[in-house]
């Protein structure tokens, strides 16, 4: 496990303009981005021991982050 936050800018290089435009134009997309950042921060804090959680909770958080990222990726692909 890398303990490195999974930032969207790193996961979608070159899409920062598209992400920004979609955030402004689509409230659902903006909520997805906010939710992704919140869960990503929580996962990172759990993995680094700042806010320790049990393994089951950590796994659920990672799955939630992955589902959000998949939905974001789908919306980016559809818009692009």
List keywords for this structure.
mainly alpha
How would you describe the overall organization of this protein?
The model has no long low-confidence stretch (mean pLDDT 93). Helix 2 packs across helix 3 (27-47) and helix 3 runs antiparallel to helix 4 (55-79). The chain has helices spanning 8-11, 16-25, 27-47, 55-79. It is built from 4 helices and no strands.
Total strand segments: 0
State the distance separating the first and last CA atoms.
32 Å
Fraction of residues in helices?
over 70%
Q: In one word, what is the shape? A: elongated
> Any low-confidence stretches, pLDDT <50, length ≥5?
none
Topology as a string of helices (H) and strands (E):
HHHH
Largest sheet: none
The total count of helices amounts to: 4
Question: Short description, anyone?
Answer:
By secondary structure, this protein is mainly alpha-helical. It contains four helices and no strands.
List the helices and strands and how they pair.
Blueprint: H1 8-11, H2 16-25, H3 27-47, H4 55-79
Helix pairs in contact: 2-3, 3-4
């Amino acid at each position: 496990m890398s303990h490195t936050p999974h930032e969207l800018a790193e996961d979608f290089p070159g899409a920062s303009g598209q992400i920004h435009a979609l955030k402004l134009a689509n409230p659902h997309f903006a909520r997805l981005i906010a939710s992704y950042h919140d869960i990503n921060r929580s996962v990172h804090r759990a993995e680094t021991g700042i806010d320790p959680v049990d393994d089951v909770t950590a796994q659920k958080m990672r799955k939630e982050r992955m589902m959000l990222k998949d939905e974001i990726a789908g919306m980016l692909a559809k818009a692009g």
